[in-house]
Amino acid sequence: MTTQVVTLKATSTVRQATIKFAVNNISGAPVVDGKNHLIGILSENDILNLIVKYQDQLGMENPALYMLACPMDEEIEDERVRKISKEISEMTIDEIMTTDVTTTTPDTTVMEVLKMMVEKGLNRVPVLERGVLVGIVSRGDIIFSIYRRKV
Fold first, then answer.
1. What is the pTM of this model?
2. Which phi and psi angles does 82 have, rounded to 5°?
3. Which of 87, 90, 72 is nearest to 12 (CA)?
4. Is the N or C terminus of the chain more exposed, i.e. has fewer CB atoms within 10 Å?
5. Which CATH architecture has domain 8-148?
6. Which residue has the higher pLDDT, 125 or 79?
């Protein structure tokens, strides 16, 4: 379990979350309130689904040339694409986060968490103690634990 958890606030923007993911080399993060209570989770998949949704709304002949043609923080010539990029960037996390989050507790075994992750296709599971986020278990945490004790 990772106890130094990178978290997001519901009022954070997609741009802020994306930057936090890149800087911390993570693919998702729990969304918490001011008392560190879990209110949702955001993953790269949530952000990518949002981009696909907006791309489909553009209805352009060759969509690959538009939404991902240049970074969203650069000046974009096409007015429709620029408007959508701005809308996505400024959208708040609470608009796209997953609120039905599978969680675990500190006393759950690694194998139980692993089975949960595999069965539900999860990449991370927040760890709660009395409703408060105290850690997170990622697939990477489990992979690391397989060998660290064997060296």
1. 0.86
2. -60, -45
3. 90
4. C
5. Roll (3.10)
6. 125
Question: Looking at 28-37, 72-81, 92-101, which range is the least confident one?
Answer: 72-81
| Dihedral angle over CA of 141, 147, 148, 150, nearest 10 | 160
What are the residue ranges spanned by the domains of the chain?
Answer: 8-148
Inter-CA distances, 56 with 37, 38, 53, 60, 120, Å = 35, 32, 5, 8, 28
Tell me: pLDDT of 41 over 90: yes
If you ran DSSP here, which 8-state letter would residue 63 be given?
Answer: G
Question: CB–CB of 60/66 below 8 Å?
Answer: yes
DSSP-based three-state secondary structure for 30: strand
3-state secondary structure of 90: helix
pLDDT at 65: 55
Identify residue 112 by its one-letter amino acid code: E
